[in-house]
Amino acid sequence: MATKLNLDKLDYQIIHEMMENAETSYADLGKKLFVSGGTIHVRIKKLQEMGIVKGTRLNVDLKLLGYDVIAFIGIYLEKSSLYDTVARELSKIPEIVRMNYTTGNYSIFAEIVCKDINQLRNVLHDQLQKIKGIERTETFISLDESLNRNVQVQP
């Protein structure tokens, strides 16, 4: 059962602005939204307590750090009831950066970031294939990321 969020226009404006640039100071954001920095601080704290804001992340160009391979893995499970167990084991593989329980052909769709093809082979062959409950996988290597953006939140 979804809980009714008690958010107003200012909350949504704060979320939008911080999604665009989380480095913006509370004082600068307050000026932009015509409220005090203290108000921004209180609102951010409320959004954190509600679980809407889950920290901040640094947006890093992984290719510049030598991570040249991004792959997507479609994972077929022996039975869908194994999802929780398999997902727990997959989350132990540090190269897996995103994982979704999906409808369609695959039970799980995961994104993997590696430095090179050898590391990808190691993840697929030496780690992923040894997890009990995985029937088989299908790998898609990304040639280029054309778009990566946040959703535009609205009240």
Automatic annotation (TrEMBL):
Any single GO CC term annotated in Swiss-Prot or TrEMBL for this entry: cytosol
Organism: Flavihumibacter solisilvae
Keywords, ordered alphabetically: DNA-binding, Transcription, Transcription regulation
Protein name: Transcriptional regulator
One Pfam family linked to the record: AsnC_trans_reg
A molecular-function term among this protein's GO annotations: sequence-specific DNA binding
Keyword Heme in annotation: no
SMART domains xrefs: HTH_ASNC
HTH asnC-type domain segment(s): 7-68
InterPro entries: AsnC-type_HTH_dom, Dimeric_a/b-barrel, Tscrpt_reg_AsnC-like, Tscrpt_reg_AsnC/Lrp_C, WH-like_DNA-bd_sf, WH_DNA-bd_sf
Keyword Transcription regulation on entry: yes
Single Gene Ontology BP annotation: response to amino acid
Coiled-coil intervals: none
SUPFAM superfamilies listed in its UniProt record: Dimeric alpha+beta barrel, Winged helix' DNA-binding domain
Lineage: Bacteria, Pseudomonadati, Bacteroidota, Chitinophagia, Chitinophagales
